Hints:
With 272 residues, the chain is an alpha/beta fold. It has a domain at 24-197 and 243-249: Vaccinia Virus protein VP39 (Rossmann fold, 3-Layer(aba) Sandwich), CATH 3.40.50.150. It has ten helices and seven strands. It has a seven-stranded mixed beta sheet, sandwiched between helices. Strand 4 (121-127), helix 6 and strand 5 (147-158) form a beta-alpha-beta unit. 34% of the residues are buried. It holds the Pfam family Methyltransf_11.
Amino acid sequence: MRWFTRPAPSSRVPRKAEVLPSPNIWYYPQAYEIENRAQDVDGEIWQVLAESACWQGKDVLDVGCGDGFHLPRFAEQAKSVLGVEPHEPLVERALLRVKDLASVNVLRGCAQALPVADASVDVVHARTAYFFGPGCDPGLREAERVLRPGGVFAIVDLDVSRAPYGDWMRADLPDYDPVAVERFFAAAGFGCRRVETRWRFDDAEAMKAVLKIEFSAAVAERAIAEVLRANDSRGPVTLPVSYRVHVRRKPTGLVIPLHSASDSSSAAPRIP
Ligand SMILES: C[S@@+](CC[C@H](N)C(=O)[O-])C[C@H]1O[C@@H](n2cnc3c(N)ncnc32)[C@H](O)[C@@H]1O
């Protein structure tokens, strides 16, 4: 039997305004598959996740799971894994990917209205999906709703403040403010770990195919030229890419506001 031993709220089709366009994986899923395979070849992100959001024996939810690339990896150790994804063709691709994995399911839905019961998962994971900074509060509230007390929410995203990849991103997104994004997550109670990774492609053609779906034509051309200059002309091509992993744990019990014992005027309640 798949995933459900308990009823879950039924999926509803996400409203158009709720879905953030993701042209890379929506229109170029084959190139995105190459990208996912190239990413984090040394397992640095997985290491940080294992340390801060261990999923062994746990119920895991991957929000914005795309075509489900990360679901089998979670399924190796998790009790159950659910991917939620708003774009129907990707839901179908993800279901195909996990068809032989009994503990994994995929539902159509979006971060702002998760098709998941209250307090029913231990780990919420979102990777380069929806949680990009200011504006993602509805999704943050949903993640908190579906987490059990003590559960962990881990958001993985690119570190736009770091060269070279961040420089290319900012060239295409001049209004993106990495400082404001980090401030937003800190104010929402998340810690932040920076992770230095390597992307590794079998050859230059694979690298070009991926950078072309990530950047405008002009920026892709510049990025490709820089990567080629930094690599031998034949064989595998590598590229340093930095990430942020933001982690927040849901409190296990009553939270008593901080107060100072010497401050008798403090409005915070006293511990009896
Ligand atoms: C860049 S892809 C990343 C996919 C996947 N996490 C991965 O790492 O392979 C971003 C994904 O977020 C999805 N997405 C867009 N709007 C969303 C929303 N409101 N809630 C959840 N996911 C959303 C897109 O459809 C897309 O599949």
